[in-house]
């Protein structure tokens, strides 16, 4: 795809109130898959808290759009996912502004392309793990005391947790850690009726792609899937909705795979 091609993050169907009365926290929610999920959750009636890392204007624009188009109740918060205090302060803000928390979507992640494994620096490795893996742990730790029976946690992992990626080695390792966290935490929280599931997107066209990938690879991004193209955020967001709502009440410890047909497992 062309580097300046816009991502499609618009919901495709009218809402049916599946998240009415719920408060949902979406980290990394100001663009890409997170923004598409926020749009869909808003259409389904959720009150939202969406986080951003550096681009507050982008987050504000999303919030204004959702207030106008979906009559959404939404607040935005800055999150530095690699810092424990920031994750806990975020949940405090959710409770302060909304009084409850029912759905946690852990999506804030970073990736850095590197073809030489020996060139991955300690700083890069620590930043990637602290943001992607530690950030999920800290956000969930902060949220758990406030989650009630029937609450849902949905974590973004990746197709790269299953098949690896030759140029995203440390990133893929964090996604594997997130996968193990999903399965372990689901078992730990099952008796509390708090469900923990994941979504493992394949190549999805988001702003992260042209920002982090070599220019010569952007145009062919996603063409190696059986469907021959990258996916769009709007094609991934329904996975998060399904896992967050009561439709998935008997599903925990599982992962959905919107990846264009890439085989996963044996």
TrEMBL record:
**Does the keyword Cytoplasm belong to this entry?**
no
The molecular function GO annotations come to: oxidoreductase activity, acting on CH-OH group of donors
Q: Alphabetically list the UniProt keywords.
A: Oxidoreductase
Limits of the Ketoreductase domain: 22-208
Q: Which SUPFAM superfamilies match?
A: NAD(P)-binding Rossmann-fold domains (SSF51735)
Q: Which Pfam families match?
A: adh_short_C2
The lineage's top-level taxon is Bacteria
The record's family statement is: Belongs to the short-chain dehydrogenases/reductases (SDR) family.
Q: What is this protein called?
A: NAD(P)-dependent oxidoreductase
Species per Swiss-Prot/TrEMBL record = Pacificitalea manganoxidans
């Amino acid at each position: 795809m062309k580097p300046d091609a816009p991502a499609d993050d618009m919901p495709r169907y009218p809402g049916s109130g599946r998240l009415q009365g719920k408060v949902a926290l979406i980290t990394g929610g100001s663009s890409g898959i997170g923004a598409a999920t926020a749009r869909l959750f808003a259409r389904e009636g959720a009150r939202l808290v969406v986080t951003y890392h550096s681009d507050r204007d982008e987050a504000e624009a999303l919030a204004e759009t959702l207030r106008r188009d979906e009559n959404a109740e939404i607040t935005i918060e800055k999150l530095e996912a690699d810092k424990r205090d920031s994750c806990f302060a975020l949940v405090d803000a959710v409770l302060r502004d909304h009084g409850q928390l029912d759905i946690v979507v852990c999506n804030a992640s970073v990736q850095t392309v590197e073809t030489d494994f020996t060139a991955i620096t300690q700083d890069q490795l620590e930043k990637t793990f602290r943001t992607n893996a530690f950030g999920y742990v800290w956000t969930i730790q902060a949220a758990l005391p406030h989650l009630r029976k029937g609450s849902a946690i949905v974590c973004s992992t990746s197709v790269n947790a299953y098949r690896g990626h030759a140029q995203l080695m440390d990133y893929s390792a964090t996604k594997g850690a997130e996968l193990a966290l999903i399965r372990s935490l689901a078992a730990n929280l099952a008796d509390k009726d708090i469900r923990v599931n994941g979504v493992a997107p394949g190549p999805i066209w988001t702003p992260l792609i042209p920002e982090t990938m070599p220019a010569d690879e952007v145009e062919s991004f996603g063409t190696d899937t059986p469907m021959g193209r990258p996916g769009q955020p709007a094609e991934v967001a329904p996975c998060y909705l399904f896992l967050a709502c009561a439709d998935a009440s008997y599903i925990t410890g599982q992962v959905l795979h919107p990846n264009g047909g890439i085989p996963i497992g044996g």
